[in-house]
Amino acid sequence: MRKILQKSIDFGGESISDYRKPSGEKGGFDVLRKAYRREGEKCARCGTVIERLKIGGRSAHYCPRCQKL
Questions:
Q1: I want to staple 35 with a disulfide (CB 3.0 to 4.6 A). Which of 4, 39, 43, 61 is the partner?
Q2: Among the residues of the chain, which ranges form H helices?
Q3: Same domain, yes or no, for 29 and 57?
């Protein structure tokens, strides 16, 4: 998890909704997301379709083959 957080910082964060850097630019980490907000798309690792669960009003996106619940 620390590696992913550091990589996100290095790429300037994620701009899925309205986040922007102080310069006004979007962050560059969006293209590296493997599952979040990729429901219905194929998993980059195994090709299984990404699924979404709602947990306590929040969404969780995952590959049912690669990520066991």
A1: 61
A2: 2-10
A3: no
